[in-house]
Amino acid sequence: MENPHDTIQLSCKGRCFDFPLVEGSEGEQAIDIKTLRARTGLITLDPGYANTGSCTSSITFMDGERGILRYRGIPIQELAQQASFKETAFLLIHGSLPTRDELTQFSEQLTDYSPVHENMRLFFQNFPPNAHPMGILSSMVNSLRSFYPEIANEDEEIKVTVTRLISKIRTLAAMSYKISMGYQVIYPRPDLSYCANFLHMMFDSTVRPYELKEEVVHALRVIWILHADHEQNCSTSAVRLVGSARVNLYAAISSGITALWGPLHGGANQAVIEMLEAIRKGGGDCRSFVERAKNPNDSFRLMGFGHRVYKTYDPRAVIMKEVCHKLLGALGRSDALLDIARELEATALEDEYFISRNLYPNIDFYTGIAFRAMGIPTNMFPVMFAIGRLPGWIAQWLESIRDPHWKLSRPRQIYTGPKETAYTPIDQRV
Questions:
Q1: CA geometry: angle at 389 spanning 146 and 319, to 5°?
Q2: How many structural domains is the chain composed of?
Q3: Could you list the residue ranges forming a coiled coil in this record (predicted)?
């Protein structure tokens, strides 16, 4: 936190101003400029907010230079190896791993809240047949406000509401797929785990019962844990920004889902599969596409390589690579796109151009392949991401509304348009 002896000086128009340095628990530092405009009349300009800290947070720590990611201090590697998704969600939202009694109670609540109001099916059925599942999910989450009361400020009411949402989002996601395909909706089973229940609702049918495979359940658990939070990314920032207006939880989360829909964020794993399909249609020659990606005059880019923050191997991708390869081996699937993905991975990892620029395969590359191997439709990939990211969004929303220094988010700008201009009557316009 702030140390009154550590400051940084800004010199402007012959005057000097001191601003305090803020230090986080892992030693990262920032300049506290909340009084900048009041004292100097200046603002900062930082397109994309790449150098701007929008808040302090005790939820997730990441270090892009060293490839570190921790939830509440626990390394992502340990959670992926040992924790359940429910434990991870509880950790993010409540600040510590659950005791056995707390986990039992949390699990029972997730089971109790998993069904959705039957009238919600009418909403689903009125979407056009070609509606994207992310658009449906965002709308359905927002509509939950109509079926459940506004959150009171009491902690117990908030706890019930967030648990209800974590439970229902997997049901809504599976229902959106079933209804879009014209299939009968499958309801959750109380005897299945969180991840297994989603797979059951997604793929089971009265015609052909779905066989739950441990390898698939395990892979889905790891994927959702790896996606559960990732500091102040685009969708999380959207949740905090919208939430700063003190909207209800459902509206804030709906904004996060919408932000996640973008191809540069949650849609990246879908873009990976589309890229692999383009390579297949182009003859399957990975080397030629790698050379195109290296050509600055070619608009083609390798999707699923490199990361905005990580300047070394994405620690989630290290885990996901192993999980993905084990999943493919266990399922024994024969798929031309998966073969191309393996070849593309090997080609890029041996190419000095990608190595020198730290353009390693990221988590989106491997999750796209894993989802395809599981049988998840490509347009459902961002939905899968949203389910995993929900606990992080909720944790970030809770932290922001409980912040005693809360302020409505209101970024500034540098205006570059015309100066004052007189109104021109329509008959005089050229």
A1: 160
A2: 3
A3: none
Among 63, 95, 116, the domain-final residue is 63
DSSP characters for 325-385? HHHHHHHT---HHHHHHHHHHHHHHT-HHHHHTT--B-HHHHHHHHHHHHT--GGGHHHHH
User: Annotated catalytic, 307?
Assistant: yes
State the CATH number of the domain containing residue 28.
2.20.28.60
Q: Per the domain annotation, does 414 fall within a domain? A: no
Helices marked H in 21-99 — which ranges? 36-40, 76-82, 85-94
Which string of DSSP letters, residue by residue, matches 233-299? -HHHHHHHHHHTTT--HHHHHHHHHHHHTSTTTTTHHHHHHHHHHHHHHTTS-HHHHHHHHH-TT--
Q: Looking at the structure, do residues 365 and 382 belong to the same domain, yes or no?
A: no
* Kind plus residue range of the DSSP H or E element containing 42: none
Q: 144 and 251: one domain?
A: yes
For residues 117 and 180, membership in a common domain is answered with yes
Report yes or no on 408 lying in a domain.
Answer: no
Digit-coded pLDDT (tens) for 175-185: 888 887 878 88
Query: 227, 364, 405, 427: which is the annotated catalytic residue?
Result: 364
| Ordered DSSP codes for 142-184 | HHHHHHSPPPPSSHHHHHHHHHHHHHHHHHHHHHHHHHHHTPP
* Full-model pTM: 0.91
Whole-angstrom CA distances from 22 to 7, 9, 31, 34, 60 are 9, 14, 6, 12, 17
Structural domain span for residue 151: 74-265+378-399
pLDDT along the chain (430 residues), means of 10: 76 92 92 93 92 94 93 98 97 97 95 88 80 91 85 75 94 88 86 95 90 96 98 96 94 96 85 89 88 90 85 89 90 80 84 86 88 92 96 97 90 94 95
CA distance 421 to 419: 6
Which residue among the candidates 132, 200, 230, 307 is catalytic per the annotation? Answer: 307
Q: pLDDT tens-digit profile of 292-346?
A: 989 999 988 888 888 888 888 889 999 998 998 899 889 987 678 878 888 888 8
